[in-house]
Sequence to fold (117 residues):
Amino acid sequence: MNAEKFISAIRTHVQEKAKNDLVGTFTSPSGRCPRELLIKVSEWRAGLPSDQQRLLDDVIAESVRVALFGLFAVIDGSRVVDEDVDRFIITAVGYDGARTELNQDMAIDLHSEFAPD
Fold:
């Protein structure tokens, strides 16, 4: 795995999955006793016209993107969470034990992949 494949996997398995999970939860909360907030949001969303439901879905997608941007800004060191840490390194470890540092290159800004267009 390299940085490009990592970002692609994050887009598919985190960003899109989180967006789809939230839209699904806000459409039809699951479980025997969903939280009251989720029921209220679901009822509110169901009363919206379809174009406003799509707008809400877009807001959800944007919220997920901004959260990933913030997380990777911390990892890249452009958003400080600890004054003693310059940046964090993400290391992929294969089943064979092979290690690849995905953001060792300072020129790679993972957060820029999720920045506003």
